[in-house]
Specification:
The structure holds two protein chains of two kinds. Chain A is α+β, with helices and mostly antiparallel strands. In chain A, about 55% of the residues lie in helices and about 20% in strands. In chain B, β9 and β10 form a beta hairpin. Helix content of chain B is about 35%, strand content about 25%. The chains are: A alpha+beta, B alpha/beta.
Chain lengths: ~400, ~240
């Protein structure tokens, strides 16, 4: 009986190809929208997670200044080299401490000039930020200690100043200082926030302090924690140590902040997830609209086929058989719409993910869910017209013109 | 093809009335019908428009229920059956032929004839064979794949008859089967019905208002104002 109803439904759909297509269009668009949103959102989340992992996970970032809310910090005295050594000495959980300071500078090579950020760092900075050297080398101990005029370029700076040429050994101007290029960083690309991570120049911290900034300040301390150690515990220890060193009395707020990279990661992935579900919910509304479209057409179809229903009832079809026939037709229509929607979604997510430069990660769960949801739409919105058909009076139905 | 002999009567109406509407607007279509039809009969129901003959046919065909009175089909009280039980009764024992043919549009003759067998749950191969046989019985073997739109009125009515007899029903009800046909086609249809009655023993009941058609039947029942006026064997033809 079910099989017969299925064949009958197929025949009925074939008979009205254009109308059937228009009927399922709502479902097609709804399903495609939901799956595309979820796929793109999932890809974005995966990308954020992966980028954060590339920063290093067991990373604590210490900055001077009070945390006053979104992106705001109160002014406070910067850190000194002594703070860095104290952290490395007193906190056993610490694997590496990388102090750094930065300032924006104009670089010049030949006729080319480029404004970028100069960062005073030492070699541990490469480890904690997961930078790899593509060409050349890192700083030597002598260069770091003596504060020599050497630098390592990010990929963007290299492109802007040198084009295709190899910059190794060349001398560039960094503000007032002339500086030899000794290394090149491997490109990282854009960050989650859309910032170009490769737009930077690294110089030894001492060189930076003496010849660019002209002061001993350290504006950022990045600390990597040993594997297997609770970062929360390390974070507390560092906070206590710094409070002591900065003479903050009990009850006063910190005038610095220690942030765990994991927290930032969670916050960012959380945001993308919320955005994804929001977009998905908006798309789901169009599924509902698609369902109403199906109900509308099924009602028209029942009216049009009143006489046929009368014939079927007269020759002995039971109410539930007529109900089943129309219900199956609605379900076949809507699940067909679901399948077309899924195909459309795969095509459009492929295109969109290439366009937005996010990885294409297809979630089979959402596809199965979307299919069953579209079938369910058929059942729900097909039931009312089907029941109307089944409850027709055969005599009235046969008289219908 | 002959069904097993059954104790008569096949159909028995006792004091059947049918009232449409309520209160002031109430209109009695049937005002107390007593009628018995036995196995193998060929009955023509005649009468002017509004005399209740179609209403009576719908009740006999289990499409409608009497307001009052009893209808026994093979000893079963139909008025006590549910809507679904009456559908099962139609499915297994009754065949219908309508004035307007009532075939499914854009569906081949063969598939139209198969339709009642689908509801009986017959496998496709058996369905097809039985439908072919029924179409052959009405002389339309060469039109199996034509749709109603490609057939003449007489041919459509013959497809409808094939659909009615494919289930080998106990009774065939025909409501003005020749109403839309010219005289020559009408005669063909009546001869076909008469031969089905004669050769296959199918009980046939037709509604008509043409005396020429009624004379193919073996018995004529005349309705006037919701009552049976006359009930006599048809003269001449038998």
């Amino acid at each position: 009986m079910l099989w017969n109803a299925f064949l009958l439904a197929l025949r009925e759909i074939r008979r009205n190809v254009l109308r059937s297509f228009l009927t399922i269009l709502g479902i097609v668009i709804g399903v495609a929208a939901v799956i595309t949103m979820v796929t793109i959102g999932g890809g974005a989340t995966a990308q954020v997670t992966q980028q954060i992992a590339s920063l290093g996970t067991n990373l604590l970032i210490v900055r001077p200044g009070q945390h006053l809310g979104m992106g705001q910090r109160g002014a406070a005295s910067p850190f000194r080299q002594e703070d860095v050594t104290a952290i490395a000495r007193e906190i056993p959980a610490v694997a590496a401490v990388a102090p750094s300071a930065s300032q924006s500078v104009t670089t010049i090579f030949g006729n080319a000039n480029w404004s970028t950020s100069a960062n005073g760092v030492d070699n541990r900075y490469f480890t904690v930020r997961n930078w790899t050297i593509e060409e050349g080398r890192m700083f030597s101990d002598g260069e770091l200690r003596a504060g020599q005029a050497v630098c390592v370029l990010g990929a963007t700076v290299r492109k802007e100043l040198f084009g295709g040429q190899s910059p190794l050994g060349s001398k560039i101007r960094l503000g007032k200082m002339s500086c030899q290029v000794i290394g090149l960083l491997a490109a990282k690309g854009q960050s989650t926030m859309g910032r170009d991570q490769d737009d930077l120049i690294l110089v030894p911290l001492r060189t930076f302090q003496r010849r660019i900034a002209g002061k001993q300040d350290i504006s950022l301390i990045q600390i990597s924690i040993r594997d297997g150690i609770d970062t929360n515990k390390a974070q507390k220890d560092i906070e206590l140590l710094l409070r002591e060193r900065r003479h903050i009395s009990v009850g006063e707020n910190d005038d610095f902040q220690v942030r765990d990279m994991k927290e930032i990661a969670q916050m960012l992935t959380g945001t993308t997830r919320i955005l994804t579900s929001l977009l998905g919910a908006v798309a789901a509304v169009s599924l509902l609209v698609g369902g109403i479209g199906i109900m509308n057409i099924m009602l028209v179809s029942v009216t049009e086929r009143t006489r046929e229903i009368g014939i079927r009832l007269a020759i002995g079809a039971l109410e539930r058989e007529v109900l089943l026939q129309f219900l199956v037709e609605a379900v076949v229509l809507s699940s067909f719409g679901g399948v077309v929607g899924i195909l459309l979604a795969i095509v459009s997510s492929l295109g969109l993910s290439a366009l937005l430069n996010v990885p294409f990660i297809l979630n089979p769960g959402i596809i199965i869910l979307a299919f069953f949801f579209s079938a369910a739409v058929g059942v729900i919105f097909g039931f009312f017209p089907a029941r109307k058909a089944a409850q027709l009076d055969p005599i009235e139905a046969l008289r219908h013109e | 093809m002959n069904p097993a002999p059954l104790p008569p009567p096949l159909i028995c109406l006792k004091g059947v009335t049918k009232v449409y509407g309520h209160g002031q607007a109430a209109m009695a279509a049937l005002r107390g019908i007593d009628l018995e039809i036995g196995q193998g009969e060929f009955v023509a129901v005649m009468g002017p428009s509004g005399s209740g003959k179609s209403t009576c046919m719908n009740i006999l065909g289990c499409l409608d229920t009497p307001t009052r009175g009893g209808y026994q089909f093979r000893g079963v009280a139909v008025e006590e059956l549910s809507r679904n039980q009456r559908a099962m009764l139609r499915r297994h024992y009754l065949g219908f032929v309508f004035q307007g043919y009532n075939l499914l549009n854009r569906t081949s003759a063969l598939e139209n004839v198969e339709l009642p067998l689908i509801y009986r749950g017959l496998p496709a191969a058996q369905r097809r064979a039985a439908a072919r046989q029924a179409l052959a019985a009405v002389g339309l073997s060469d039109r199996e794949h034509h749709t109603p739109g490609e057939l003449s009125g007489g041919q459509q009515q013959r497809v409808a008859i094939a659909r009615a007899i494919v289930t080998e029903p106990a009774v065939l009800f025909a409501d003005e089967p020749t109403g839309n046909l010219d005289t020559a086609r009408s005669k063909e249809i009546m001869e076909l019905l008469a031969s089905l009655n004669r050769e296959h023993g199918i009980t046939i009941m037709i509604v008509t208002h043409e005396p020429d058609m009624a004379k193919y039947a073996k018995r004529t029942v005349c309705f006037v104002d919701g009552l049976v006026a006359t009930d006599e064997p048809a003269g001449g033809e038998s």
